[in-house]
Design goal:
Helices cover 39% and strands 12% of the residues. It is globular, with a radius of gyration of 22 Å. The relative contact order is 0.20. It folds into 2 domains: 240 residues, D-Maltodextrin-Binding Protein, domain 2 (3-Layer(aba) Sandwich); 171 residues, D-Maltodextrin-Binding Protein, domain 2 (3-Layer(aba) Sandwich), CATH 3.40.190. By secondary structure, it is an alpha/beta fold. Helix 2 links the parallel strand 1 and strand 2. The strands form 3 sheets. Strands 1, 2, 3, 6, 11 and 12 form a 6-stranded mixed β-sheet that branches. It has a 4-stranded mixed β-sheet with strand order 8-9-7-10. A two-stranded antiparallel sheet has the order 4-5.
């Protein structure tokens, strides 16, 4: 698991652990030299850009793994070859959100950046200074080309603050040398785990960081309860539905290694000491190098219900820097995002080479995805995006602590969720 993924999961979980249809490329512009967004550009070379032939320059901040970064640079080159626009890609270093917190108020921030969608609510409510730009009037592609989950993820209070290009969630890995058929139900899975679980000899039924809310979300929400209700803006952890889900999750606690930490869990599966693991797509390449016959499937149903896992939607954010920029800069930033996110060839290649789970509906539906990526895509369809409302920030720590108490046998699951819900409401 690379450092970017570690950071992403920490941000989401608050503990140690998002050719046929190419988007329209905006080529208009009124800044002749294409300002970089900090001064907007004023057409100092004598061209006013009115003929649409002179493009703009936009800055993009990224925090990607080496392979992802190399691919992104290649795609930017491709975009620039088809457009008059120029993209300056930078890696600011350090924690990206901290860099943005400093750079945007000082007027030195990027025009766009890439990160999971769950910062949208947090940044959208900033008023002085604003952090995000509403590009509803600048993006030509319809959001209908994306999956419903992805559409929801990039909007806040009716404003469009980014475009989605991939999703992340957790689902079930299994070792095909140990498991004949992927389990369809939780009961099926438990019967297989019973065959292998022998902790005294270093063998387990399951690898699963069960005390991380992001990983645990699917089972807690399996019966229709919401960890955070996006309509009432309240937690429903103390609802009967969430408590039913917690009871199902607790059945898995007995089958994992004693240390619920991420590394201890994933190593057990990678070493062939467990038939199952619940983890994310960032582990596909690592696990394929360790396990000769690796299978990926959706999480097993619980009393006929699909576990509703949280998903992170990788997003091109539109920065508030665009509010004062020339239209040429806006066109460059939104044009790249639109081209990248709606280009079937780009999306399909990223799925094959980077393990990205597509959110472009045409690619999801065409049936050409690998079995692994298709399984993750199906699990994303069963789940919900991490809520973007700022009140969600109050959820992670109390829920993590509740899961930890239950896992350690210090509290029953019902009272633990009651306590977490009370703490969340006090902190909102």
């Amino acid at each position: 698991m690379n450092e970017k993924r570690r950071t992403l999961l920490k941000a989401m979980g608050g503990t140690t652990a998002l050719a046929g249809l190419a988007g329209c490329i905006s080529t208009g512009g009124d800044g002749g030299d294409g300002g970089d967004g900090s001064d907007g550009g004023d057409g100092s070379d004598g061209s006013d850009g009115s003929d649409g032939s002179s493009g703009g320059t936009a800055t993009l901040w990224t925090d990607l793994s080496d392979g992802e970064d190399e691919a992104m640079s290649s795609y930017i080159d491709q975009y620039e070859s088809q457009s008059p626009n120029t993209i300056e890609k930078n890696e600011p270093g350090g924690e990206l959100d901290q860099q943005l917190e400093t750079a945007i108020p000082s007027g030195e921030g990027p025009d766009s950046w890439i990160w999971a969608h769950d910062w949208i609510g947090r940044f959208a409510v900033r008023e002085e200074p604003p952090f995000l730009y509403d590009a509803s009037d600048d993006v030509d592609a319809s959001l209908d080309v994306f999956t419903e989950t992805a559409q929801q993820a990039v909007q806040f209070d009716g404003a469009l603050h980014g475009l989605p290009f991939a999703s992340e969630t957790v689902t079930l890995f299994y070792n095909e040398d140990m498991v004949d058929e992927p389990p369809e139900t939780l009961e099926d899975m438990i019967s297989v785990m019973d065959e292998f679980h022998d902790p005294e000899n270093g063998e387990y039924g399951l690898s699963y960081p069960v005390t991380d809310p992001y990983f645990a979300s699917g089972f807690i929400q399996a019966y229709g309860g919401d960890i955070f209700d996006t309509e009432s803006l309240e937690t429903a952890l103390d609802s009967d539905a969430c408590k039913q889900g917690m009871d199902a999750l607790e059945r898995l606690f007995d089958y994992v290694p004693a240390d619920p930490g991420y590394e201890s869990q994933i190593v057990a599966f990678a070493d062939g000491a467990a038939p199952f693991a619940i983890n994310g797509p960032w582990e596909i390449a690592n696990l394929q190098s360790e396990i000769e016959n690796l299978g990926v499937t959706t999480l097993p149903t619980v009393d006929g219900n699909n576990p509703r896992t949280y998903s992170g939607i990788q997003t091109f954010y539109f920065s508030a820097m665009l509010s004062d920029a020339d239209q040429s800069t806006v066109d460059a930033a939104t044009g790249l995002a639109e081209w990248y996110t709606t280009n079937e060839e780009v999306v399909a290649t990223n799925a094959e080479e980077q393990g990205y789970i597509p959110v472009l509906s045409s690619v999801v539906e065409d049936g050409d995805l690998s079995d692994d990526v298709q399984a993750f895509a199906q699990q994303v369809d069963h789940g919900v995006p991490i809520p973007t409302h700022p009140n969600m920030n109050a959820v992670w720590t109390p829920l993590t602590e509740a899961l930890t108490r239950v896992f350690n046998g210090n509290q029953e699951s019902g009272p633990a969720l009651d306590q977490a819900a009370s703490e969340i409401r006090e902190n909102q």
